[in-house]
Design brief:
By secondary structure, the chain is an alpha+beta fold. Helices cover 26% and strands 20% of the residues. The chain contains 2 helices and 5 strands. Strands 1-2-3-5-4 form a 5-stranded antiparallel sheet. β2 and β3 form a beta hairpin. α1 packs across α2.
Length: 145
């Protein structure tokens, strides 16, 4: 993750937020509408406590900024934050909106699991509208700050 080229779009998602060391992408996978991942793009770390105070402030400010925009656009009942790294050991946080009428496990952790095959994706037109709305809310121009 820390060595990638930081494209605006890839097979997993479309970038909606970027700072010098933080990217966030709205995910293509049809796991949950509004599902986004915030990725630390500075030096390689696997745990949040490995960040300096300044790095930590930048990372968590990014997580909260994106979470606010996702919550404002999608209006979930609750937002879940998963900073795991068990499968991919690099600092990143999954933002998972939880909805009253469309929740796979109400009251329990979200069932985010690796896929054994092709993952269904959100229709491109729906994804494009959501990306545009979030980019406007986050003032994302596609250039690094």
């Amino acid at each position: 993750m820390c060595d990638s080229a930081r494209p605006d779009s890839d097979e997993y998602g479309i970038t909606i937020y970027r700072t010098r060391h933080v990217d966030a992408a709205l995910q293509r996978a049809d796991i949950q509408r509004g599902y986004a991942v915030v990725i630390w793009r500075g030096r390689h770390v696997t745990e949040p406590y490995e960040l300096s105070a300044a790095e930590s402030e930048e990372y968590w400010r990014g997580v909260m900024t994106v979470a606010r925009a996702v919550a404002a656009h999608f209006r979930p009942l609750k937002m879940n934050y998963e900073t795991l790294g068990n499968t991919l050991p690099h600092l990143h946080t999954h933002l998972l909106p939880r909805y009253r009428d469309n929740d796979p496990r109400p009251g329990l952790p979200f069932p985010l699991q690796p896929s054994d095959g092709p993952q269904p994706t959100i229709p491109e037109d729906v994804l494009a509208r959501d990306v545009e709305a979030l980019r406007r809310a986050l003032d994302f121009s596609g250039t690094q700050n």
